[in-house]
Amino acid sequence: MGKTMIGGYIKMKKMKLLFISLLITALLGACGTSKKEQNTGDDKEKTETIDEGNNKQGNDEEETETVEQTENESGEETKDGPEKVRLLEKNLTYQENGKTEEETAFLKKSDNQDYSLYVLADYELTGEEPQKDVLYLKEADALFMRIELLPANANLNDEVETIKSQLESVSSDIKETKPQGHEWLKNATGVTAENGNERVSAYLIPQKDWLLKLTIFTPAKEDAEDPFLKMAETIED
């Protein structure tokens, strides 16, 4: 074999090896790209799956918080009830010395006890001593009503005996009384005593949260008790 033929054979063999190397490199590159794209797609799907899971978890937490908030609000309303709002003024109709009067009364809150009531313009509410208030006529403070909120579980019989003892200082002639036109006093216990100058009436009215005790002082010859009772009817906590 001549040198020329040998040289040609070697050259062809080198070119064949080079072609095979390039082909293998191309195939490896294509496989790598495909695998990378596949991995990228898988990673994207995984990311989307995680995001969906996070979003779902977030939504579930929001829904849980909403449910808990609703339950809390519902529980508070059930337990305490909605806060009651009273108007600042109210018209009251009452009888005085045989005449029917109608006037505007204004909401007043006791500084001494836990209640409010509507007070006519000619009257004033003030604290007398702890757990006792006085509502009096401004132009004649001898006309007044003492307001006491006794515990709801106070013994009614004992309290009746107490007010009878108090009225003995006015007169030994103590009578039961039940004013007309006051439906709210239908379950009340009332007693009254008077002498030539003064009349004192006392009422014990069972309420939901307390036993309301009213003691009204008026001149014996005047019919001035009804305005006090109409204002007392508006007492609320």
Automatic annotation (TrEMBL):
Region entry Disordered: which residue ranges?
Answer: 34-85
Answer yes or no on keyword Signal.
yes
The signal peptide annotation in the UniProt record is 1-30
Any keyword Methyltransferase?
A: no
Biased composition of type Basic and acidic residues is found at 34-49, 76-85
Q: Any idea which UniProt keywords this protein has?
A: Signal
Which intervals carry biased composition (Acidic residues)?
A: 60-75
Q: What is this protein called?
A: Lipoprotein
Ranked from the top, the taxonomy reads: Bacteria, Bacillati, Bacillota, Bacilli, Bacillales
